[in-house]
UniProtKB/TrEMBL annotation:
This is Fatty acyl-CoA reductase. One of its GO terms (molecular function) is alcohol-forming long-chain fatty acyl-CoA reductase activity. InterPro entries: FAR, FAR_C, FAR_NAD-bd, NAD(P)-bd_dom_sf. GO terms for biological process: fatty acid derivative metabolic process. Its main location: membrane. CDD domains: FAR-N_SDR_e (cd05236), FAR_C (cd09071). It is found in: Membrane. It comes from the Eukaryota. Residues 24-295 form the Thioester reductase (TE) domain.
Amino acid sequence: MPTEYIDGHPDRCEEWFEGKTIFITGGSGFMGKVLIEKLLRACPKIKKIIMLIRDKKGKTPEQRLKEIFDGPLFDKLKAEYGADHVKKVVACKGDVAAEELAISKEDRAWLCEEVQIVFHCAATIRFDETLKKAVLLNVRGTKLMLDLAREMKNLMVFVHLSTAYCHLNERVLYEKPYPPPASPHHVIKCCEWMSEEVLETITPKLLGNIPNTYAFTKALGEALVCDEMDNLPVVILRPSIVLPIWLEPIPGWTDNINGPTGLLIGAGKGVIRTMWCNGDGYADYVPVDIAVNCMIASTYDYVHFKGVRRIYNVTSSAEYKISYEEIIEIGRKIVETKIPLNGVAWYPGGSMKKSKLYHNICFFLYHLVPALFVDALLILLGYKPVLMRVQRRISKGFEVFEYYANNQWDFHNEDSMEARKLMNPTEKKKYRLDGDGIDYEEYFTNCIHAARLYILKETDDQLPAARRHMKVMWCVDKFCKTMIICGFMYLIYKYLLLPIFT
């Protein structure tokens, strides 16, 4: 659809992207998909998007590309521009974690001749990834992408997607480079020639007080990009915790259950009933459509203003804050009264605990004991046990969550705010970069509804049955609690009070 100009102001981003060839890594990931959809819809006259993509699970890059475009995320784009518009995206076979990116000589020559803009989004975001895998993808992969960028004859901007949570020793993060926790080049060499077993033994020593390989390797990868600021047109974006879509094209859409969405689903299913966390604390969140808009706008900002800004903290807590307790309360209200999930294991409940000891006791009583009991019943009935496996995954997730939930970081984004002021009214509307007017209850309602549809595959026609089941589980929950209280009262009467009066 043609862009609607506000007060005659043109969309300078759309004009700048016209006729450009873009190279994207990580295009099959969450942010990559949203970025590609937005580029095609907001800048329809781009020449081409080349997506680096590998074979996976027996599927060729072309087959994987077709699967991506068959998804609901691209329905709005196809409705506006036709199904053939996605043909502007072509696959380039390769792998960021492989030597020389596993790109053929012919494709490398093609990329070096045609590409003008690079979005390097590929990364492993698993916090428990082995050091070797994390380094090969997040660090060596970034180095190889920079090597490729040096060969690109018409390169105008190279956008590196980092994270606001990669410099964890900095309690206040500014929009500037920071020294890496180790030499990226030395770490790459170690991981190339050392075995997984040897690396596993030295990982704690290498990480030091950094809690996981994700933060460690993202800091190293960012440092490599910073080192090239005098040689290449590089830009670094540091988004905080990326949430599902806020506004467009599908409110609430996501393709994963990482972050708060996973916690809301786990609590909504009744399997998460305790967390060690200061409920009054807060983290920094940014919806993926806002982050992607910043990626697009930053490329124009860099080129138009000749590199005045090179690092953008894509964060929100300087403007908007929502506590963990508020998120949980909103989520509980939604799954109890608006959009219950199918087949909940127990009525949603529980709370956040400020005491780790209290949390551990509750985890044992409300997570492990019921899981052992149900799995024992399943084994007796001839089925495979499932709940203890689920609880092990939850426990592993808690280890990651608790570090971030019980520490506090703040982010300064004055340069990003200044860049936002330079956008005209048309651009501010089309590439929304602020959260003005966000209704958290409506937003998380959309998140849970989208998770039902696209992650859990629970359709809307199943909602009446889910509501009935939720009412049943409410009755079961109250009955069990009443019986437990009566049992305690009986024991107190029999063993404490009765002997006194007889």
